[in-house]
Sequence to fold (496 residues):
Amino acid sequence: MKTILSVLSEKPIAVVDERIYGSFIEHLGRAVYGGIYEPGHPTADDMGFRRDVLDLIRKLNVPIVRYPGGNFVSGYNWEDGTGPKEQRPGKMELAWFSVETNQVGVDEFQEWARRANSQVMMAVNLGTRGPEEARQLVEYCNSETHTEYADRRRRNGFEKPFGIKLWCLGNEMDGPWQIGSKKPMEYARAACEAAKVMKWVDPSIELVACGSSSSSIPTFGEWERTVLRECYEHIDYLSLHSYYGNRNGDSAAFLLSSADMDRFIREVADICDEIKAEKKSDKVVNLSFDEWNVWFHSNEQDKEIPRWQVAPPLLEDVYNFEDAVVVGDLMITLLQHSDRVRIACLAQLVNVIAPIMTENSGRAWAQTIFYPFYYTSNFGRGTALPVHTDGGLFSAGTVTDAEKLNCVAVLSEDKKQMAVFIVNRTLEDSFELAVQEENWQVVRHVALENDDLKAVNTADQPDAVIPFEKDFSEGIRIAPHSWNMLLLEFSDGEAR
Ligand code: AHR
Fold:
């Protein structure tokens, strides 16, 4: 019997904010040095940026890249990464116990982002620094005035402001691992005062306040309420961070990771609305899921990496096929909440828990998770629509009554094309779909399937796990534990 799939076009979720396809580059491990920047590399451009890596990133169509951290930002003096390179200080970097050479800083990064067809989402240091340094950085980046920091930018060779529009008020300030971590009210006060002066320098910027670093931290909820009560009228977004992993070797439960993301988003959105009501405000604070991914493979090996190296190979998760299915499913969940999640950042982009890996002086390749991101980012632009199937419910791990098929559709702006993203979250069930959409024809079925959940891509075998065009002439078949994209085209029944 066929499983019926229908798109609920009459109940649109939202016009997707393209910044939901953001990513993240932190000064961590080989993300910057050996990742995006390697002056001696055969593909290096005039500024030392790797062209092979830029080519892969441009394919992902990433509209924003969060920078420079992450935990790194909470001990960072942005001035160290500006001015003549030979005068920049080497620093003991306490977030990751590495040596930071400062050869890349905001000047270089904003130019790199331009070359990647992207924009910078800048984080300020609210760990060891505060509102004053934050507003100085806004002046340096965005101001046309002839004043100290804007003039410093000019002296460094940048006459025109960088025009950075999206800013994070610190990073994971609730976490004891954070340099200069804070109690809820300590952070709320610092964030509020930083937000005020940053917007006074440039009223056009948007601000993201730190939510909890995860939903399992004991202060979750109390933290959000305190921050929102203090900062509500000064901020635009509240952040969420979450990482998933098959830590117990339970693939059935791991494939349902998106149930946790779904619950987390609902809870934070509810808290935002609760404080909105409490304040009788007209303003809606939306969500920035600015760190999400699978992260666990490298946890043990990282403990063996000696401290105080430049660009050590930290957080280099090698992603397998099941990770890719989970990443695709998490993207479906973000789209299902695209009315509230306006910004999201896959953490991270190169080498560090990343879709793109490199060898120093050598090759660059796409990990398994590259592919669901690639298709969703490129075909998921437009209006998100809910999808219903009668595929049924199942339970795994601690989650009960979850949809076996998790789906969302995105209708293109010209309304001529619709992408339906489908993940079969079960290990054993397969489905034959009947797509019930009058006047819509399925023109492509792209599938990521594999019998081996642990299959990976490597430099030598970069195409071991890649999606393929699936024949649907005799029916649309959805394999167990698979990621799928159906592409539909509008046809009014007349010859084209
Ligand atoms: O993305 C890696 C780290 O995870 C980030 O630096 C931090 O914000 C989070 O804990």
